[in-house]
Structures are given as C-alpha cells and as structure tokens.
Amino acid sequence: MQIARPRGTRDILPEEALRWRQIEDLIHHLCRLYGYGEIRTPVFEATELFLRGVGEATDIVEKEMYTFQSKGQRGRSLTLRPEGTAPVARAYLENNLHARPQPVKLYYFGPMFRYDRPQAGRYRQFHQFGAEVLGTDHPAADAEVIALAMAFFKALGLDGLQLQLNSIGCPLCRPVMREKLVEYFSVRVAECCPDCRQRFSRNPLRLLDCKEKVCREVGSQAPNPVDCLCPGCGEHFRQVRRYLDLMRLPYTLNPRLVRGLDYYTKTAFEIIVPGAGAQDAVGGGGRYDGLMQAIGGRAVPGVGFALGLERTLRLMEKQSASPEVPGPTVFVASAGETQDVVTKLVGDLRAAGLAADRDYMGRGLRAQMRYAQKLKAAYVLLAGEEELQRGRVILRDMQTGEQKEIRLEDAVNVLRAVAGK
Fold this sequence. Notes:
This protein is α+β, with helices and mostly antiparallel strands. The protein has 2 domains: 14-173 and 229-319, BirA Bifunctional Protein, domain 2; 330-418, Rossmann fold (3-Layer(aba) Sandwich). Helices cover 37% and strands 21% of the residues. The chain is built from 15 helices and 16 strands. The strands form 3 sheets. It has an 8-stranded mixed beta sheet, sandwiched between helices.
C-alpha cells in the first residue's frame, strides 16, 4: 500500500514553491523597511507556555493542540506551536531582550500546527507571517503593525480587503465588560452553541466572537466593549485611530471583534475579505500587555499580528494577483563570443552589491531581452562583440527604453550611480 501524506497537510511543489519564495522575499524586504529583525523559534515548546499564554478556555488549547510527552524528560509535556506570539514572548524573556534598546521589533514566518477539520484554505500544518513590537505601550506601535500588515497585502496586489478594529480594554475595564455581558447573555445563553454555553462562565467576552450563525444573532444586541473602556483605554484607542487616519488607512469599527486568544488587551484588529464566509479573515492581531506576566516574566507591553499564508495564497489565486517582488537591478545580455567578459562583469556587479543576472540557455539577443523583461530587470547591459572590441557596452533603461554607450571599465560605477548604491 502506498504511503500518503497525513490528512490536513500538503506538498508544496516547485511551481508553487516559487510563489512562496516570492512572498518570503517580500516579507524580508518589507520588514527591513519597517525596522524589524527576524526571529526563529522552535516548532515545539513547553505545553505550559500555551496553557498560560494563549488561555485554557480557548479553542486552540481545548481542541487543537498537538501535545506529546518528551522521551528524554519523564512527565515533560511538549506541544507543536499552534501560534507564534507566545514563543516570541518566551524568547524575549529567556534571551534578556529587555536589556536591548526598546522597543524590540521582531518578525517571523514558518509552520504552525493545529488539529482542525481540513477544508479549503485551512490545514493542520499551516504557515504564518507575524510581527511583534515588544517593550512599548505607545498607540503609534499599534498603528505601525497594522500599517505593516496592510502594506504586505497591498504589495501582493490584493484588492477588497477591509480592516476591522475594536478595543477590548484592560484588567480595569474587563470586570465592567464581564458584568454587562453576563447580564445580557444570562437569559439567552441557552440558545447559543455548546461551545458558547461552556465559555459563558469562563470568558463571556468570547461569546461575541463566535462564528456560529445562531450565536451571532443572539449577540447582535450585546453591550459594546468600547462603551465600557476606562479613561486610559479610551484615550489609547482614540490615539490608535488618529494615527491610522494620519496614515490614510481606512478601517471599520467592529464591536464584536475580540479575537480568539486570552492574551489580547486594548487594540484588536482583523483583516477580512468581505463576502468570503466563515473564513473571511486572512489575518489579525492586537495588543497583549499582560502576556509576559502570564508566562512568568516581568510586565512588558506588546502588540503584533499574524497572517495566514495559505489563505493569502488562495486569495491571490482568486484575484489573479502577483507580488511586487523586484527583479535583478541589471541583466547582462550577450551576443557572440562574449561569455568570458559577461561572466566577469556579472561577478563584478554582484561584488559591488548589485543584483545581477545573465542568460544560461544560449538564447538569442531578442529572447534575452524578453527574458530580462520577465525578470523585471531595471537595466540591461548589452555586451556584443562589436561593442566589446571598442571597450564599450550599451546600457538600456528598461522602464524608459533609453540607452547609451558607456565604457566597459565604468559599467559597475555607472550602474551603482543610477541604482543609487
């Protein structure tokens, strides 16, 4: 019998892997622009990290975690990471990142694992891109992570995405929220789904976030968390909205948005595709000022997001969108017996910090130019036998079509000048 891949997983074949690589390159490029450093955490962590950080009453902990006993340490429970924020928080504490200049801005992408019913765009092994700002409670940090998430989708060429925003307060506000929600749902909870009936006594705020139709109808007139905010949280939310307005990032207030993890406080947001049904969210995040203390560390504020890459790719296919991934700065096209010169020239360009490429397929000059266009090269250096005999090459601007002869020995410096290197 042929062995098949486990249910809820998938193989990424070379054609699709190219699209994944483009997205990964875009992630690195954007995060550098925004000043974030990459962090890579283990794919499994102590189970206690998610019990205390994510919350025992969440769907992730109750139903979805892949947990196992360590072979080396009897009784040691380990879990394949179901999300990325708690591991990043653990790494911040364990590696004393609080000693670095604050805030610490980190990003990650990689596989996560949740036991769930496989369906379109949802897998048991899936991938997330996330970013976290740790060490500041400034509302501008909330606005920045939202801006980064939206910039990612914009760079992919996606349309029709909507930013939804809410605030779910802090430990000062929560008792007021809880009291009002308990009062509202106490006479209606019997109409809710089994999960919400269980959540009612432990975390009534989660009843607002249920995706079941009956629960959404029951909660349609529930108290608005924003109306329960303390003065500090109210001002924080006002400032977040002001910064988003300054950055011209439109948003929709959604009083039912609470997110699914217990560590969220204050700002909560989701990025959705309206009309996509139960799986309309492609990502989201918010502030989690109490997470570090929940996992045994000092009080450190934080804010961040996570975006599902499988859902993003599915949306790209639906919209026929392509990422705006830059091609090489320069493509060196050759004609005739010029391979030695081309090889040296490409090496010199790369050594000077310029992204350079060349033809390896023996294409004719016209075919090389078409290939350079497909690669989205900004410039082409035409190295023909006649030009090289005179110590010259032709520099062509692929955007304007303008071209001029330059000296071969000046080619690297000219390219560095026009490329701003």
